[in-house]
């Protein structure tokens, strides 16, 4: 992902997160989950599960574009190192995505 | 080959300043990297908080330690700054605030806003 596509992804994901994060914090602030059951229930409702899944999906895309830019800017001196870092970044973000799935899917299904 | 003896040098430190817009830009990048680095810890906490009552209590306990509170304030600053600086960029995309005065004012507001959010968070959790 590069050029105009990265530019658009970065802005669309930013817009979604700019809405999601304050709304989520307001929700937790004004309707604080009293205990574990309430906290879990919050993530189990279909609308919230969908909103949270979308949030982490765009967050990981946003992190890819941003960290990719940082690596491309500062690791200009060695193609091999740059490629390795980008590969590690991609692997790490995919891993975090799978980790999140493992954490969130059981909450919805069980 | 010798260097020219009288080349102009301008190193008056009182006159050389890093403009607010450049500081916002630098901190936007820095805060983004901070958020990226904190992501594994955030996912771990979320995972454990949803695993069971014991994990929930453990996550809550960790966030209440001095290290946890410090991390919360750091993330609050990084998130606040990153979000405000990002909104400033989005406004620039639709050509709002491009004149010199509002660009400078907006940059200062973003820097201050990030610090205010961090301090408010500190006040709430301490």
Please provide a written account of the structure:
The complex is a heterodimer of chains A (110) and B (126). With 110 residues, chain A is mainly α. Chain A has one domain: 3 helical TM bundles of succinate and fumarate reductases. Chain A has helices at residues 3-30, 36-44, 46-74, 79-109. The model of chain A has no long low-confidence stretch (mean pLDDT 95). Chain B is an all-alpha fold and 126 residues long. Chain B has a domain at 20-35 and 65-125. Chain B is 78% helix and 0% strand. Chain B has helices at residues 20-51, 53-64, 66-93, 100-125. In chain B, helix 1 (20-51) runs parallel beside helix 4 (100-125). Chain B is elongated and about 70 Å long. The termini of chain B are far apart. The A-B interface holds A 11, 14-15, 17-18, 21, 35-36, 39-40, 43, 59, 63, 66-67, 70, 96, 99-100, 102-104, 106-107 and B 29, 32-33, 35-36, 39-40, 43, 46-47, 49-50, 52-53, 56-57, 79, 83, 86-87, 90, 93.
The biggest beta sheet of chain A, please? none
What is the structural class of chain A?
A: mainly alpha
Distance between the termini of chain B: 63 Å
Percent of residues in helices of chain A: over 70%
User: Low-confidence segments of chain A, ≥5 residues, pLDDT <50?
Assistant: none
Based on Cα principal axes, name the global outline of chain A: elongated
Give the helices and strands of chain B as they follow along the chain. Answer: HHHH
Integer-rounded radius of gyration of chain B: 21 Å
| Regions with little confidence, pLDDT below 50 for 5+ residues of chain B | none
Tell me roughly what share of residues is in helical segments of chain B: over 70%
Number of domains of chain A: 1
Q: Return the CATH architecture of chain A.
A: Up-down Bundle
Strand content of chain B: under 5%
Derived from helix and strand composition plus strand pairing, the structural class of chain B reads mainly alpha
The total count of helices of chain B amounts to 4
- Quote the average pLDDT of chain B: 92
Number of helices of chain A: 4
């Amino acid at each position: 992902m590069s050029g105009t596509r990265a530019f658009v992804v970065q802005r669309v994901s930013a817009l979604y997160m700019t809405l999601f994060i304050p709304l989520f914090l307001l929700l937790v602030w004004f309707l604080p989950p009293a205990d574990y059951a309430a906290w879990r229930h919050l993530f189990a409702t279909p609308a919230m599960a969908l909103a949270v899944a979308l949030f982490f999906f765009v967050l990981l895309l946003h992190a890819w574009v941003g960290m990719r830019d940082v690596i491309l800017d500062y690791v200009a001196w060695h193609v091999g190192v740059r490629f390795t870092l980008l590969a590690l970044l991609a692997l790490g973000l995919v891993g975090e995505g799978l980790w999140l799935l493992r954490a969130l899917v059981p909450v919805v299904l069980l | 080959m010798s260097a020219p003896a009288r080349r102009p040098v301008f190193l008056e430190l009182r006159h050389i300043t890093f403009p607010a817009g450049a500081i916002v830009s630098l901190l936007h990048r820095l805060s983004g990297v901070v958020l990226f680095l904190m992501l594994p810890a955030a996912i771990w906490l979320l995972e454990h908080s949803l695993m069971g009552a014991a994990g929930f209590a453990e996550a809550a306990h960790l966030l209440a330690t001095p290290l946890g509170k410090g991390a919360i304030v750091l993330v609050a600053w990084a998130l606040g700054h990153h979000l405000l600086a990002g909104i400033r960029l989005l406004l620039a995309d639709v050509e709002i605030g491009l004149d010199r005065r509002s660009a400078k004012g907006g940059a200062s507001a973003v820097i201050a806003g990030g610090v205010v959010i961090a301090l408010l968070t500190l006040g709430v959790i301490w």
